[in-house]
Design a protein that fits this description.
The complex is a heterodimer.
Chain A: H1 2-9, H2 18-36, H3 46-65, H4 71-94
Chain B: H1 2-10, H2 19-26, H3 28-36, H4 47-66, H5 72-98, H6 100-109
The chains are: A mainly alpha, B mainly alpha.
Membrane topology (chain A): Multi-pass membrane protein
Subcellular location (chain A): Mitochondrion inner membrane
Keywords (chain A): Membrane, Mitochondrion, Mitochondrion inner membrane, Transmembrane, Transmembrane helix, Transport
Chain lengths: 96, 110
């Protein structure tokens, strides 16, 4: 058990490296947008949400292809893709 | 001569045929979207989202300088993100906390 945890700690994409903490900061975008799902759709920026949809799609691929492969970054952007697409649908529906 | 240099760039392992090029390049879209949103009224700005954009921009700016090699492209795009985020935050804070007197007076008179 603890050897798996040690392996994580010492991994080339682990918490001792920037490859870990950068994606941690990207979770801020995800959590911010989850919080914004509770707000009225008039507050959604179509510009920003549309851009974030494309941005996260590209970075899912980037996280897979980069060496070392960064699964954490990949999952972060997959989550962001989901919430941004949801926000985009709320925004689109409110356009009437 | 120029053709072979262009060809070298075109075929580069982090060049325009690869995701290593397009993902960071498209990140500029976030700052451009924010600049487009400068025209929107501050009521529509989202505090959580702009705080996240600013924080992400600042953290990645630092990290792009501590990796090897330093990535000035990544640095510049994240500096832009942090800057536009900070500006949007300042617009909203100014409206929420520093223009109350005028609005309160207008409401009293109106």
């Amino acid at each position: 058990m603890s050897s798996a945890f040690k392996a994580f700690l010492n991994s080339s994409v682990g918490p001792k490296t920037t490859h870990f903490w950068g994606p941690v900061s990207n979770w801020g975008l995800v959590l911010a947008s989850v919080a914004d799902t509770k707000k009225p759709p008039e507050m959604i920026s179509g510009n920003m949400t549309g851009v974030l949809c494309v941005y996260s799609a590209l970075f899912i691929r980037f996280a897979w292809m980069v060496r070392p492969r960064n699964h954490f970054l990949m999952v972060t952007h997959m989550s962001n893709e989901c919430v941004q697409l949801y926000q985009l649908s709320r925004w689109a529906r409110a356009q009437g | 001569m120029a053709t072979s240099k262009l060809q070298a760039l075109w075929n580069h392992p982090a060049g325009p045929k690869t995701i290593h090029f397009w993902a960071p390049t498209f990140k500029w879209g976030i700052s451009i979207a924010n600049i487009a949103d400068f025209a929107k009224p501050p009521e529509k700005i989202s505090y959580p989202q702009q705080i996240a954009v600013t924080a992400t921009g600042l953290i990645w700016s630092r990290y792009s300088l501590v990796i090897t090699p330093k990535n000035w492209n990544l640095f510049s795009v994240n500096v832009a993100m942090a800057s536009t985020g900070l500006y949007q935050l300042s617009r909203k804070i100014r409206q929420d906390y520093f223009s109350d007197e005028k609005e309160a007076t207008a409401q009293l008179e109106g």
